[in-house]
UniProtKB/TrEMBL annotation:
Pfam families in the record: DNase_II
Signal peptide: 1-23
Biological process annotations from GO: apoptotic DNA fragmentation
Similarity field: Belongs to the DNase II family.
EC number: 3.1.22.1
GO MF annotations in UniProt: deoxyribonuclease II activity
Full protein name: Deoxyribonuclease-2-beta
Catalytic activity, reaction form: Endonucleolytic cleavage to nucleoside 3'-phosphates and 3'-phosphooligonucleotide end-products
Annotated gene: DNASE2B
Amino acid sequence: MTASLLRTALALLSLGLCGVLEATISCRNEEGDAVDWFTFYKLPKRQDQESRKTGLEYLYLDSTTRSWRRSKQLMNTTKSALGRTLEQLYKAYASKNNTAYLMYNDGVPKSVNYSRKYGHTKGLLLWNKVQGFWLIHSIPQFPPIPEEGYGYPPSGRRNGQIGICITFKYNQYEAIDIFVAWMAQHLKTHLLTETWQRKRQQLPSNCSLPYHVYNIKAIKISGHSYFSSHQDHAKWCVSQKRTKNRWTCIGDLNRSPYQALRSGGFICTQNQHIYQAFQGLVLYYENCN
């Protein structure tokens, strides 16, 4: 199955309800423990007075931490949350056991070719007859193919990146119904959106429909530390504070006129810990003209 077969989608989920079993496939934290879900925000590589960043540091939040914290590990190590989680794929592949997986990315690992005809989609599913996980992210050329083991591509270092991993019971896979929708109108909420603001490829904030969409312009890390949307390859949105329906969506599609005809996906949740964590990242956003 290729990324071009995936349609523009929302997956509406209630996180933290499934429970996990230590001995089965699941999302995993930096200690290797099973978690219901986690989300990460890989920080952009910055040259500032504070320090020289590696482009491999990330913020981390899961079903047990409740708020953002700095990662103990770097993104390219097997002890990172992604490394621990994907280790299950590489072990399953090596042992040839009863495990299925699906990897999709419009930027194929190690490929120098890039086509705008296909979906702007990036993700991985791994499962057996007990349970599995779904990882959706914004990192090009990631993850490495199973034969090569875990690694993090240089193409994912410079800009901010994002992802979310969710653990599912086997019988829940059929319940993930992917469908076409305009996000703000379907979710019935004003959205603050953070997607890659490339020069001449961005769309302005839009207030023409009942539910508005505003571009986030700067992301706050902590205190006076922040970075611009121009440094951020992440794709996410969060309901405006004053709205009744409080949603957070994490995915792989930019708000760009060049991507209007391309496929992409978002996982959306009303989990309040995730909502509060992402609301806290918004430094300021662009109002409508």
